[in-house]
């Protein structure tokens, strides 16, 4: 699966990238939401977007909403250090919202198995 990872924290982005590539996925990393919008506008062949919530310029929820307004319907997974439950309520259509904690690798892998 082709996955676009969006995270302004280089360490967190690389960690997510490593987990997903180890699971056999082809991943690309964008440093912020505006870069992700540009990439997806140029190449809509990404099958999944995995984005951090808190980023400068365009946060993860704003990125999700902008993609939907542009008609891009890839499943979207939001990663956050906050409580994920209220975020799912704020963004109908969000595929999943996962906590950035010690169980992220396990939960992300299980989620991708469902796709």
From TrEMBL:
Residues 2-115 form the Response regulatory domain. Keywords: Phosphoprotein. One of its GO terms (biological process) is phosphorelay signal transduction system. Pfam families: Response_reg. InterPro entries: Bact_response_regulator, CheY-like_superfamily, Sig_transdc_resp-reg_receiver. The modification 4-aspartylphosphate is found at residue 52. This is Response regulator.
